[in-house]
Write a structure and sequence with these properties.
Keywords: ATP-binding, Cell inner membrane, Cell membrane, Ion transport, Iron, Iron transport, Membrane, Nucleotide-binding, Translocase, Transport. One of its GO terms (cellular component) is ATP-binding cassette (ABC) transporter complex. Pfam families: ABC_tran, TOBE_2. This is ABC transporter domain-containing protein. Helix content is about 20%, strand content about 35%. The chain is globular, with a radius of gyration of 25 Å. A hairpin with a 2-residue loop joins strand 10 and strand 11. The longest helix is centred in the middle third of the chain and has 17 residues. By secondary structure, the chain is α+β, with helices and mostly antiparallel strands. It has two domains: about 230 residues, 3-Layer(aba) Sandwich (Rossmann fold); about 110 residues, Nucleic acid-binding proteins (OB fold (Dihydrolipoamide Acetyltransferase, E2P)). It is built from eight helices and 21 strands. Strands 7-8-9-3-10-11 form a six-stranded mixed β-sheet, sandwiched between helices. It has a five-stranded antiparallel β-sheet with strand order 2-1-4-5-6, covered by helices on one side. It has a five-stranded antiparallel β-sheet with strand order 14-13-12-15-21.
Length: about 350
């Protein structure tokens, strides 16, 4: 079942086209990451879904119900935010500083839809939410007594308490340090999976989007330029700009003929779906596709310029020899491997390569 349908939604602020004919669908129980640089329209899209912004055109359906429609012949349909059954987690949590953790979560149960619940039922729901986000026993604490990660867990619990049809997360980890951000996003994903929640997370962090979401929508200048599962997005980006935004990419000119790529590094395998003939193609190679090879297997070679160490892996910067274009490239290797500046490496390229006209 499609939990969310966004149909040709546009929004303009003065001279700025924040959203331009956006179309997206999301199945029940899935997570969508909306990925893009600052100013691309991703937060405006989230706010339009929540009802905080009114689009100029288009339709939005949640759980089969139309919550916004600018195309009706009679009058505009624009359901109020509090009636859309949406859980919203803002960027910085924004807990009420004068309320305890329990009362912050209970605030999410204060809507008209939950007035029929007894005080005991609400208290039990708060306990369930605290357990769900790993905060059992901390209900009497005040927000200032919590760490940043704990505050975000409580903000999530508050959003989930009314059992919303859809959960929206607006860059919820951006204010946290790197280590906590990684741990918390895994916890949040596990929490949402545990209750089969349908969710949308807005982020500018490619790693966050690829690791958390079932589906990733890449936005650029108000347009949704690609919607794919994380593996397809990384391996088969729709254009060079997406390729360079989602991970590291080496971009080179080449010729495509008879279904193969003819490049300065030799003949390469062409990825499926690419144009099979082009005299002025641009190819995209991921750093991990470059592999150190013995002389009898190498396609080309170069000298090490420097190595940037990241712990679990390293990025080796090389410059190929003149006969292969004196091209600077980056090769991703296991972090345990070390190379010295000036060292010569024979290389080959593994896997199919994307080509664009």
């Amino acid at each position: 079942m499609k939990k969310l349908i966004i149909d040709r939604v546009s929004k303009q602020f003065s001279a700025v086209q924040a959203l331009s004919d956006v179309h997206l669908t999301l199945e029940e129980g899935k997570m969508l990451a909306v990925l893009g640089p600052s100013g691309c329209g991703k937060t405006t899209l989230l706010r339009a879904i929540a009802g905080f912004e009114t689009p100029d055109t288009g339709r939005i359906l949640i759980n089969g119900q139309t919550v916004f429609d600018a195309q009706t012949s009679t009058k505009l349909i624009n359901t109020k935010p509090e009636h859309r059954k949406i859980g919203y987690v803002p960027q910085h949590g924004v807990l009420f500083p004068h309320l305890t953790v329990e009362k912050n979560i209970a605030f999410g149960l204060s809507s008209a839809d939950s007035k029929r619940q007894t005080k005991q039922q609400k208290a039990q729901r708060v306990i369930e939410m605290l357990e769900l986000v790993g905060m059992a026993g901390l209900g009497q604490r005040m927000p200032h007594e919590l760490s940043g990660g704990q505050q975000q867990r409580i903000a999530l619990a508050r959003a989930l308490a009314p059992s919303p049809s859809l959960v929206l997360l607006d860059e919820p980890f951006s204010a946290l340090d790197a280590g906590l951000r990684i741990a918390l996003r895994e916890e949040v994903k596990a929490t949402l999976n545990a209750i089969a929640a349908t969710a949308i997370i807005v982020t500018h962090d490619q790693e966050e989007a690829l690791s958390m979401a079932d589906l990733v929508a890449v936005m650029r200048q108000g347009k949704c330029v690609q919607v794919s599962d994380p593996v397809s997005l990384y391996q088969y980006p729709t254009d060079i700009n997406v390729a360079k935004f989602v991970g590291d990419a080496i971009v080179l000119p080449a010729v495509v003929a008879n279904g193969s790529i003819h490049s300065r590094f030799g003949t390469l395998a062409l990825a499926g779906g690419c144009a099979t003939d082009s005299k002025s193609a641009t190819i995209m190679i991921r750093p991990e596709q470059f592999v150190v090879s013995p002389p009898h297997e190498q396609q080309f070679g170069g000298h090490v310029l420097k190595t940037i160490y990241y712990g679990h892996n390293a990025l080796v910067h090389l410059k190929t020899e003149d006969q292969w274009g004196a091209q600077e490239i980056q090769m991703r290797v296991n972090g345990a491997r070390t190379f010295s500046p000036g060292e010569y490496l024979g290389l080959k390229i593994e896997g199919a390569v994307m080509a664009y006209e």
